[in-house]
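Preliminary data (for renewal application), calcium ion complex.
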Amino acid sequence: MKLLLVEDETRLARVIARGLTEEGHTVDACERGTDAIEQGLALDYDVAILDWSLPDADGLTVLRTWRSRGSTMPVLMLTARSSVPERVAGLRAGADDYLGKPFDFEELLARIEALHRRSVTIGALRAGDVELDANRRVLTRAGAEVLLTAREFALVRMLFERVGDVCTRTELLGGVWGSSFDGEPNVVDVYIGYLRKKFTELQAERVAITTIRGVGFRLETRT
Ligand code: CA
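Predicted structure:
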């Protein structure tokens, strides 16, 4: 995950950043609210960890500014203020979760992971009665599921993102194999074949990948 950490207590910030980095995450850190506002709007973070009390603009102001400018980034607020009215103020301003200081690192980590999972699930893609779960890289239908390889997932995601539209062979090739791919272009057809088999496994009769001769493919839903 790519995380934004906004915390002015240097020692605490260092401990959190080190722990998260050891868990394999990338952490950008800010100490000031004004920097945090800019940073959070300029880059795409999976989760922001935002301290309430900062030397300049406080966490609540930072959060309100992010939300008023359209940011939907999941935000976990850190605070020593655990009174109910303050917690409510934070949540009303658009915080997704709350953690009172002092806290255990393990709890912080668990909450960040939960926030991320939730935001990814909201972004699950759907075509007819089939859902693409990007977090688990599976296609699901009526309680059944099939696992996708990394390439299959990248390919089917492009189709799901544009249900009903034609995706050209060149677009699919560039999106999944990269623009520098110099192998056989019919690799797309081969993988489309794998995906069709997976739809069959799911008995997904209302969803089909149609070949548009000489152009590409289209994910179609039927009623
Ligand atoms: Ca602080």
